[in-house]
Amino acid sequence: MDLTQGTLQEKKSRAKKMMLWFGIISLIMSFAGLTSAVIVSSSRPDWSEDLTLPSVFMVSVIVIILSSITFILAKRAVKNGNNDIASAFLLVTLGLGCAFIYIQFAGFRQLIESGYYLTGPTSDPKASYIFLIAFVHILHVVVGLICLIVVIYNHFKQKYTANNMLGLELAGTFWHFIDILWVYLFLFLYFFM
After folding, report:
1. Could you give the CA distance from residue 142 to residue 135 in angstroms, rounded to a whole number?
2. Distance between CA atoms of 145 and 151, rounded to whole angstroms?
3. CB 3.0-4.6 Å disulfide test: which of 28, 133, 145, 159 passes with 154?
4. Number of CB atoms found within 10 A of residue 7's CB
5. What separation in angstroms does the CA of 134 have from each of 11, 14, 28?
6. What are phi and psi of 170, to 5 degrees?
7. pLDDT digits 0-9 by tens, 45-88
8. Four-CA torsion 33, 34, 35, 41, nearest 10 degrees
9. pTM of the model
């Protein structure tokens, strides 16, 4: 397919999708660097062997997967012209995204209550990486929530139809990416650390 062909709207759509994928690829490289740093640092003599991942992080995996499912259902409802159902699923997705962030901070509390801190004289490199990786991911979830709020606003303005779903598709791609990213990070932290 020739990228220079098509209407102006099709060209803009392709350009926006390409820019999103450039951003996603840069995020993949950033998190690959973070996980590589964990692998290298795990050979340090002060690497804690008794620290386990907070149990509440498993709940966050379930919540983030559910949020992807509700986003898919919202998109399907828009395609079928069921705007009320789409609205409900978009709002549930937003609620699940907020719940995810709350659960992540509950995980941080579990670490702190166990005596592990991000920095300071009692900090542990393994715990510091857990805090850092989870927090950086939370920042990207916040960006996803902002995108979702924009999508919800545009949806209530009836901007999306079965033939015009670009904003919904872009936000959905980013949302699913950060969801898959957390599943990967959780599995990495759970099995490698």
Report:
1. 11
2. 10
3. 159
4. 8
5. 36, 32, 15
6. -65, -45
7. 888 888 889 999 999 999 999 999 999 999 999 999 999 999 99
8. 110
9. 0.91
